[in-house]
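Q: What structure does this chain adopt?
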Amino acid sequence: TNPTTPLVIDQGSVIANNTGREGGGVHSSGGGRRPLTIANSTIRNNTATDTGGGVFNNDTGDIADSVISGN
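A:
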């Protein structure tokens, strides 16, 4: 994907039971070029071995009408 394209998670997405080093559920590392939007979604029960169990975001972002729990 293009590193300058916004990352959007929307419309009832469920991200669950994943594992990663940074951001077990979602990893967005745009460095100021790739904003993250999470809307109308659930991010649950994810694990990271380093940081950001549910979400790791190294950029701007918005979260609306979503559940992030148990990460």
